Structure formats: C-alpha cells, structure tokens
C-alpha cells in the first residue's frame, strides 16, 4: 500500500510537471516587460527628456520624424507635464505573432511657464515590439500630443 501511494505521488508530480509549460511564464515576463516599457515612456515624457523617450520608440514607428518634431514642440511649450496611466486596469495582449498591445486609460496635465493648463485624457492602445519592447504604434488618440479644447465659458 505504501509503495502504491509513493507511485501515485510520483505519477502526480510528473503529470503536474509536464502540464506546467513555459508559455505562461514567458507571457508573464512579456507582460511585465510591456508594463515596464509604458512606465519608462511615462517617466521620460514627464521629465521632458526627448532622447530618453525616443530611445523607447522603434525606428519603424510610423512618421517617427514627425512624431519627434511634435514632441519637441510639446516639450518646448509646456514646462510641467503630469502624465498618469491607470495600470490596475491595463489590458496587455500578447499575440502569438505581432506586437504586444497595452490598452489603458490615461490622463495628462500640461502647464506652460505662464500658468496656462491643458488637461486631456482617454483610452489608448500602445503596440510594442515583443523583442525589444519599443513603441511601434499608437492606436487611438496619441496620449503624448495634448489637444487643447475650448472650455465652455472661457
């Protein structure tokens, strides 16, 4: 009986070990890396560090030069940038092929040296290269380019 119990335990351990595969571990690592990439972009953006920000953007980013020029304009116009990402509700999609997608809600506040404040926010999907975790595309309203809207009564 004792021998049968030992065999069952060993068999159960072998079955459990064979069922545990690397993809869930790999997906967890990829998800954490994608979250770290979003955090790195946010940190560089708030510091208004164009070089650090562009280091996180893939060379294949659509109209990368235009995006760079727009960021330069934002960084020269606004002296203070506060940018927040709702990480607790972020959805990270890790497809078998293609880029990693992070979907999240963001809010931004940009302030000029003269005290003018622009607030913007929304939901966006950022697509990252799964090998280098660099930004490949923005699907939706670009959170890094604030849009001034006329406030009612102003």
Protein topology:
Elements: H1 2-19, H2 22-46, H3 50-55, H4 64-77, E1 80-85, E2 91-93, E3 100-111, E4 117-128, E5 135-139
Antiparallel strand pairs: 1-3, 2-3, 3-4, 4-5
The proportion of residues in beta strands is 15-25%
Query: End-to-end span in angstroms?
Result: 84 Å
Tally of separate domains: 1
State the CATH topology: Nuclear Transport Factor 2, Chain: A
Q: Report the total helices.
A: 4
The count of β-strands is: 5
Q: What characteristic shape results from the CA principal axes?
A: elongated
Low-pLDDT segments: 150-154
In the CATH hierarchy, the architecture is: Roll
User: Which structural category fits the helices and strands?
Assistant: alpha+beta
Radius of gyration: 22 Å
SSE pattern, N- to C-terminal: HHHHEEEEE
What attributes does this structure have?
single chain, about 150 residues, 5-stranded antiparallel β-sheet, 4 helices, disordered C terminus, alpha+beta, 5 strands, Nuclear Transport Factor 2, Chain: A
Task: Walk me through the structure.
The protein has 154 residues and is of the alpha+beta class. The protein has a single domain (23-139), classed as Nuclear Transport Factor 2, Chain: A (Roll). 41% of the residues lie in helices and 25% in strands. The chain is built from 4 helices and 5 strands, in the order ααααβββββ. Strands 1, 2, 3, 4 and 5 form a 5-stranded antiparallel sheet that branches. A hairpin with a 6-residue loop joins strand 4 and strand 5. The chain starts with a helix and ends in a 15-residue tail after the last strand. Residues 150-154 have low confidence and may be disordered.
């Amino acid at each position: 009986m004792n021998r049968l119990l030992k065999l069952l335990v060993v068999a159960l351990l072998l079955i459990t070990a064979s069922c545990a595969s690397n993809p869930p571990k790999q997906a967890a690592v990829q998800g954490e890396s994608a979250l770290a990439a979003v955090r790195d972009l946010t940190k560089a953006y708030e510091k208004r560090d164009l070089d650090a920000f562009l280091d996180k953007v893939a060379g294949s980013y659509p109209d990368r030069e235009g995006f760079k020029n727009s960021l330069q304009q934002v960084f020269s116009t606004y002296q203070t940038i506060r940018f927040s990402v709702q990480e607790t509700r972020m959805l990270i999609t890790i497809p078998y092929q293609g880029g990693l997608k992070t979907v999240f809600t963001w809010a931004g506040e940009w302030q000029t040296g003269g005290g003018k404040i622009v607030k913007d926010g929304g939901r966006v999907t950022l697509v990252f290269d799964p090998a280098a975790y660099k930004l490949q595309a923005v699907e939706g309203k670009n959170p890094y380019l604030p849009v001034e809207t006329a406030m009612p009564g102003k």
